[in-house]
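Regression test case RT-17, inverse folding.

Input:
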């Protein structure tokens, strides 16, 4: 018996077979995104005092319940005293988990009762969005990033991932677009809220004036957006 026969060192082919095992890979793709969410809560539990942990956990849980979104959860967390970078990281990781789950398990997730209905709703939103915005198919990557970035009703990591699938983008590109849109959106709301809070501490009147200006601009943009969509529908035969 040769020395080679006596060694138990696994060969590269065995490792490749293990990685290529569809049952193993499928299980990892299903479990990993779901495990990321409780991992975020566990990390918050370790780094935050218990009362602070309960408050931020409530905010994070509310993020999954419409109509709450980045535009409400992040500023509220900053006002309550949480660091802008912490709430940015938490919300971004939640979006990462949701996007990974959708792009890796889309067909399987459609068969899960509650999640399947959410994905079907996202497919309806995505189809309506692409029909009202035909330019999106020409600039699919940029359009998907903007779709996730802007806090309009129906946007976000889940529906953004679904929209990416409808546009025919590969999984890596969909995930990348969702991550870019989510991170930039989180940073804008977190840093903006932090700066506005600092301004309020120094000059409350100025801060209130800036906030009112922002609200008026957002309302005007939403009204203009809806009017634009209404005109597009009226032109459709």
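Golden output:
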């Amino acid at each position: 018996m040769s020395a080679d026969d006596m060694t138990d060192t696994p060969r590269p082919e065995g490792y490749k077979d293990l990685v290529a095992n569809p049952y193993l890979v499928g299980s990892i793709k299903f479990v990993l995104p779901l495990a990321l969410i409780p991992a975020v809560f566990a990390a918050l539990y370790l780094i935050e005092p218990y009362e602070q942990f309960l408050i931020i956990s409530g905010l994070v849980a509310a993020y999954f319940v419409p109509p709450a979104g980045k535009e409400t959860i992040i500023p509220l967390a900053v006002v309550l005293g949480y660091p802008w970078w912490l709430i940015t990281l938490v919300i971004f990781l939640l979006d990462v988990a949701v996007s990974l789950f959708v792009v890796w398990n889309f067909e399987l997730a459609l068969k899960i009762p509650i999640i399947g209905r959410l994905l079907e709703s996202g497919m309806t939103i995505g189809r309506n969005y692409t029909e009202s915005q035909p330019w999106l198919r020409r600039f699919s990557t940029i359009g998907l990033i903007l779709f996730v970035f802007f806090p309009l009703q129906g946007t976000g990591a889940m529906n953004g991932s679904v929209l990416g699938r409808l546009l025919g983008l590969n999984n890596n590109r969909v995930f990348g677009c969702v991550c870019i849109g989510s991170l930039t959106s989180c940073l804008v709301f977190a840093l903006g809220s932090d700066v506005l809070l600092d301004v309020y501490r120094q000059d409350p009147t100025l801060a209130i004036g800036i906030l009112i200006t922002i609200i008026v601009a957002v309302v005007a943009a939403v009204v203009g957006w809806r009017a634009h969509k209404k005109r597009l529908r009226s032109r459709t035969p």
